[in-house]
Design brief:
The protein has a domain of 263 residues: Up-down Bundle (Na+/H+ antiporter like fold). The protein has 16 helices and two strands. Helix 1 packs across helix 2, helix 4 crosses helix 6 and helix 6 packs across helix 14. The N terminus and C terminus are likely disordered. With 453 residues, it is an all-alpha fold.
Length: 453
């Protein structure tokens, strides 16, 4: 995309830099997520701070204007409001990938999308096998999500053992996973629908799309519209976080001016700045024409950037370093007392994640390859594909969120099951790559040596 760079910059290099930055942010975010989850468990089970920890999330605050009052506890603001920003970031990623990224063409998208379908379907079937006919069956979607931050954190710890194409495959698969989880939340975990508020939400959406169509690029307009969108979705009975996804698809991706237009404006402003600089005496302050030239450069800088990419750029660190760790700290704090019950809910979640995820991802990718519909990514082995399936079985953010939606007020057991299954998946996936990546390197080296001979 021309909006991501200036001049003759190699497109492949730009994409590589974007992926590397994404992986670094998500990877470090995964470490913070893990630390926040551990701290939450320690705080919840500490005789010193446990009471304060739970009191914190039951603290109520909000907005009161005259007779209008919207007061909720801190746990609500984290799970329904703060996570809406997380869903907004996911929506921006999805829109970018669909328009210009790994999901922009059939050939690019078919392999990771079908892999994610298998990675969602198998866990659901395994979960329902253990819980069918009981109340726990309503948590069927808990094991279907991949935690991108946790998973990329594991791949980062494995370092050079993991090729960048495998990381791209995981990221694309996880984005497709997120789409599936969002649809499930919207369809199966929403309350009774209020058509009046839903109509208002759709009206705001239509208005924002009109703004987009007529070239409104100011993000403040969409942010204000997003606030109304969040409130109307919440009042409609659909989970409020869905507003973030809807808002993302109204954000413009096209910049106001092209790269060539930016360069032309930059050339004119630079000439004005240079021609109005004093030649014979040192300059203490800029004159009016120089300041105007700087304003022209600043305006051109804003206009050449894609609003979608600019917003995603700002949200990414906010999500990785604040939203997701806060979510983990608010939801991973479960009290462990009187032992742990290995019941059908636990086995449905644990085996759904730990067995269903890698099996579904591997089998669907393999079947597509056998049928000739889509080939696995070049330079990746089947061992690596299975390994990335193991890494994808690390589920936290979406799994815990769905646990709270499926079992409101009683999600402790489900949350702890997710944590235990994800911990096991982390250990096994890292061990798998430590063992088999060495073998893959030996095989590759032997093959290269044979070719040279």
């Amino acid at each position: 995309m021309s909006i991501l760079g200036i001049g003759a910059v190699n497109p492949t290099k730009k994409i590589g830099n974007f992926i590397n930055n994404f992986v670094k942010q998500e990877s470090f975010g995964g470490i913070l997520l893990f630390v926040a989850a551990i701290l939450a468990l320690l705080a919840a089970n500490s005789p010193i701070v446990s009471e304060k920890y739970f009191a914190l999330w039951h603290t109520e605050f909000g907005i009161t204007i005259g007779d209008l009052s919207f007061i909720r506890d801190a746990h609500f603001w984290v799970n329904d409001a703060l996570m809406a920003l997380f869903f907004l970031m996911i929506g921006l990623e999805v829109k970018r990938e669909i328009l210009v990224g790994e999901l922009s063409s059939f050939q690019k998208a078919i392999s990771p999308i079908f892999a994610s379908v298998g990675g969602m379907l198998f866990p659901i079937l395994i979960f329902l096998y253990f819980t069918w006919g009981g109340e726990n069956a309503r948590g069927f979607a808990i094991p279907m999500g991949t935690d991108t931050a946790f998973a990329l954190g594991v791949l980062m710890l494995l370092g050079s053992r993991i090729p960048i194409k495998l990381k791209v495959f995981l990221v694309t698969l996880a984005i497709a996973d997120d789409i599936g989880a969002i649809l499930v939340i919207a369809i199966f975990y929403s309350g009774e629908i209020s058509l009046d508020y839903l109509a208002l939400a759709l009206s705001v959406t239509a208005l924002l799309l009109i703004f987009n169509r007529f070239g409104v690029r100011t993000l403040t307009v969409y942010f204000v519209g997003g606030l109304f969108l969040w409130y109307f979705f919440y009042k409609s009975g659909i989970h409020a976080t869905i507003s973030g996804i809807v808002l993302a698809f109204t954000i413009p991706i096209h910049s106001k001016i092209s790269s060539s237009g930016f360069l032309e404006n930059l050339r004119i402003a630079t000439n004005v700045f240079y021609s109005n600089a004093p030649k014979d005496s040192p300059q203490v302050l800029l004159n009016a024409k120089q300041n105007n030239a700087l304003e022209m450069i600043a305006q051109a800088y804003d206009e050449v950037q894609s609003p979608l990419v600019r917003l995603e750029h700002h949200l990414h660190p906010l999500s990785a370093y604040l939203i997701m760790p806060v979510f983990a700290f608010a939801n991973a704090g479960v009290i462990i007392e009187g032992g742990f019950e290995f019941d059908n809910l636990f086995w449905g979640i644990a085996l759904g994640l730990f067995v269903g995820k890698p099996a579904g991802i591997f089998l669907f990718t393999f079947i597509l390859d056998i049928l000739g519909i889509s080939r696995k990514p070049s330079n990746l082995t089947w061992i690596q594909i299975f390994g990335v399936g193991l890494v994808a079985s690390i589920g936290f953010t979406m799994s815990v969120l769905i646990s709270n939606l499926a079992f409101p007020g009683s999600a402790t057991h489900a949350t702890l099951s997710v944590l235990l299954a994800s911990l096991a998946a982390t250990v096994v996936s890292m061990s798998f790559f430590f063992i088999f990546s060495k073998k893959e390197n030996l095989i590759t080296t032997a093959a290269l040596s044979k070719d040279k001979v």
